[in-house]
Amino acid sequence: MNDDGKIEVEIFCGMTCYMLGNARILNIGAHLPEKWLPKIELMVSPCPVDCGCLDLAHAPFARINGQLIQNATLESVCAAITEIMEGQEA
Amino acid sequence: MSTDYVSSPDRQRRELMIRVACEFRKGTLADVIDKLPFYVKPTGSKPLHCCIEHDREVIRRRILALLGQEAQDDQDDSRFPHEYLDAISADSERPERPLTVARTACACCPDAKIEVVQNLCRNCFAQTCIHVCPNNAINIMRGKAFINQDTCEQCGKCLIDVCLYNAIKRFPIPCEAACPVGAIHKNAEGYAEIDFRKCTFCGKCFRACPYGAIMQRSELLPVMKTLSEGRQAVALVAPSAYVQFPGGRDKLLQSLRAVGFTDVVEVAQSAETAAGMASEEFIRKMKLGGKLVADASCPAFVELVRRHLPAMRQYLSSVPSAMAIAGQQAREKYPDAVNVFIGPCIAKRYESLSCPGVDRVITFEELGAILIALGGPALEPQDYIPQDPDGSDRDFSRTCAATGAMVAAALESEPMLELQEKFIDGINAQTLKLLHLFLFGRSRANFIEVLGCSGGCKNGPCTLAISE
């Protein structure tokens, strides 16, 4: 969570992460309920690890509230956000 | 396939591009290229095909295509990737056909048919599917509906709002279903085969095949050799590039210079020139009593006309494409340079073979691999901002309307002429029928713009990011 109480969603856009899927994950807003969007801060960030864009086995990366997700997909990032949002709503 | 995901074949292709580009940069490509299938599919990893050896063989085929070769060479299929490396140079011969099929990767999809999904069929009392079939092809066997493929004529009447359990489906052959001109088909052995007399290189089969069996013959390494040897090279950047890379337009242009391009030409500017020439041509032809002008910006449409709509050739604009104009301008400015077009399009690879100002074509994916290997400011996305699509007033990357808008503007000074414009946004079976209407004089349009990819070049077969 950031200071405003929003969920921090970082999509890493080093060229490898970008090519292997994160270019598409940037469109995540279209896949989440609209009422959640004001509670999410979507950030485009530089590389999280010092892999020199060569960690092909684990790219692409995303980070949600500080938790690193390897081999991120639209589905895995949406699932992580959903888990947090549903936890808050419960 | 959904555009929100990078499919597994896309990921594997991109991963290989990155590995090949990085190993080339390190000078170790010859040592490792034959081992790449083992690095990508190490022992113990889950096989996609029947076994891991099959997966590795498919990867070897992908590497051959990356080296610009036929993925499956009927003359000599025993060569290993490293044997091709010595022949690759900045000046090496270009592939005549940009597409190739790897039979090893082709899954020999079953024949296209309509079939009942047995575990969805409820053997209902209504049996509407049986009643609507005009060929009596549907019967009940062992308590489930069953379609006799010998008598079924694929009319599809049983598909439309008939089964309330959605148990009847059409099973396509994805590549065949995607091709609007019937240029790809299963051969006698069951493998996909492209008929290059019919192919317009639109890339729809390349996108559709869920096994990635249709591959592009790449020019990645000749371009990297050109850059590494310090030769003059000019990047001709397609208008759709700027929304495809993190960092946007300015960072991309900086990156291209940083990796060794002597100069960067923005093809959007040539697109303005081409649209102006198209306007003049339209006015000239209409004044001479012409009926129709077909814009020739899209190379897939140009090939469609040449190969499938010969009656439309007379209406095809004679204005060269923006890529050809940009290449010519670059040639005049840098006579000794290698001019590299960077775009999202497979058909541009084919078009470039007849453009004297264009020496190589690479896609956004291949450029991404070069940027990773050679570095550049595009790798710093902190200030990611969705950019103006093409850096010009007009959006030549997004819609079909760009040239038409310019023609309309030109007609303001010609009150006697009227523009009746028609856009065709994507070539498919339906829009092909529409094109025939123009030929039979069944449309009032006097100017048509056709783009092979729905939504324009930003949705080309080799894009990285999603367009709106």
Summary tags:
heterodimer; A: 90 residues; alpha+beta; 4-stranded mixed beta sheet; B: 468 residues; alpha/beta; Alpha-Beta Plaits; 3 domains; 3-stranded parallel beta sheet; 15 strands; 35% helix; flat
Characterize the biggest β-sheet of chain B: 4 strands, parallel
One letter per element, helices H and strands E, the order of chain A comes to EHEEEH
The order of strands across the largest sheet of chain B is 10-9-12-13
Number of beta strands of chain B: 15
Helix content of chain A: 25-40%
Overview of the structural elements:
The complex is a heterodimer of chains A (90) and B (468). Chain A has helices spanning 15-25, 74-89, and strands spanning 7-12, 40-45, 62-64, 67-69. A 4-stranded mixed β-sheet of chain A has the order 2-1-3-4, covered by helices on one side. With 90 residues, chain A is α+β, with helices and mostly antiparallel strands. The radius of gyration of chain A is 13 Å and the shape is elongated. Chain B has 17 helices and 15 strands. Chain B has helices at 8-26, 29-32, 36-40, 52-66, 82-85, 128-132, 174-178, 204-208, 220-228, 248-258, 267-287, 299-308, 322-333, 347-352, 364-374, 401-410, 429-439; strands at residues 99-101, 113-116, 138-141, 144-147, 168-171, 184-186, 192-194, 214-216, 233-237, 263-266, 293-294, 338-343, 360-363, 421-425, 447-451. In chain B, the strands form 6 sheets. Chain B has a 4-stranded parallel β-sheet, sandwiched between helices. In chain B, helix 1 (8-26) packs parallel to helix 9 and helix 11 (267-287) packs across helix 16. The longest helix of chain B is centred in the middle third of the chain and has 21 residues, at 267-287. The model of chain B is unreliable at 381-393 (pLDDT under 50). The interface between A and B is medium-sized, with 22 and 27 residues.
